[in-house]
Design brief:
Order of helices and strands: EEEHEEHEHHHEHEHEEHH
Number of strands: 10
Structural class: alpha/beta
Number of helices: 9
Radius of gyration: 17 Å
Distance between the termini: 32 Å
CATH superfamily of the largest domain: P-loop containing nucleotide triphosphate hydrolases
Number of domains: 2
Strand order of the largest sheet: 6-7-8-3-9-10
Helix content: 25-40%
CATH class of the largest domain: Alpha Beta
Shape: globular
Largest sheet: 6 strands, mixed
CATH topology of the largest domain: Rossmann fold
CATH architecture of the largest domain: 3-Layer(aba) Sandwich
Oligomer: single chain
Length: about 240
């Protein structure tokens, strides 16, 4: 479904991503693991069209994404949940969800409500906060809202950048459970960029470890789970894998 070859991202003279190759098959959950500054956000932002790479090919659903902006990629079936959630704090949960459907202008009000009901069914806490300002939600609830808002575009590929950042372990587990359901029951393909290897490897089929903008290691989730020495090395001396 997603093929990235030779991706290179620069910020002036700084090379953020250097010749990265990865692929995500339809229906898979794939995790991109790396420490801060490894190039994870640069990679997913380039895939989603928020950052323009200086080299490389991004193909999604057999189409070259190179000339498409971020909005066009959403219309093509890609949705990104950015690092830091990015909810509109003064708008209600309902209004945030409705904005997530902007790429579906023909959707009628009844269908819009059904889409919102479906998104809320994945995260029932949001139903109790439907008319509450997003800025008054907890951090975990805001992350759930950000994911639910992305689902309003009916994506074929859901890309998440650091979804566990700053969240309590029980909230991380709840989000991981919902992402697993999205993949297994609804067939949504998911790419997760994470420093928290435990979250990614517990739910992913395959993973890539990123270091200094390059893929340092790749393999199935069980293979990476068992290779704790390499994970400690590539994540700067820390292992996040559950024991």
């Amino acid at each position: 479904m997603l093929d990235v070859k030779g991706l290179q991202v620069r910020y002036g003279t700084v090379l953020g991503v250097d010749g990265l190759d990865l692929h995500v098959n339809q229906g898979e959950i794939v995790v991109l693991i790396g420490a801060n500054g490894a190039g994870k956000s640069s990679t997913v932002n380039a895939i989603a069209g928020l950052v323009r790479p200086v080299a490389g090919l991004i193909k999604f659903r057999d189409a070259d994404m190179g000339k498409l902006d971020a909005a066009a990629r959403v219309e093509h079936g890609m949705a990104l949940v950015i690092e830091g959630r990015g909810v509109f704090s003064e708008m209600t949960v309902r209004e945030n969800l409705e904005l997530g459907a902007y790429s579906r202008p023909a959707i009628r009000s009844a269908a819009l409500r059904r889409a919102a009901d479906h998104a809320i069914a994945m995260f029932p806490r949001l139903g109790d906060r439907f008319d509450q300002a997003a800025g008054t939600l907890s951090g975990g609830e805001q992350q759930m809202l950000a994911i639910a808002r992305a689902l309003m575009s009916s994506p074929k590929l859901l890309v998440l950048d650091e979804p566990s950042l700053g969240l309590a372990p029980r909230i991380v587990d709840e989000i991981a459970e919902r992402l697993t359901l999205l993949s297994s029951e609804e067939g949504v393909t998911i790419l997760i960029a994470e420093q928290n290897a435990s979250l990614g490897l517990d739910i992913a089929k395959r993973g890539y470890i990123l270091q200094n903008g390059r893929i340092a290691l790749e393999g199935t989730a069980p293979e990476l789970h068992s290779n704790t020495d390499l994970i400690r090395f590539y994540l700067g001396g820390q292992s996040y894998v559950r024991t």
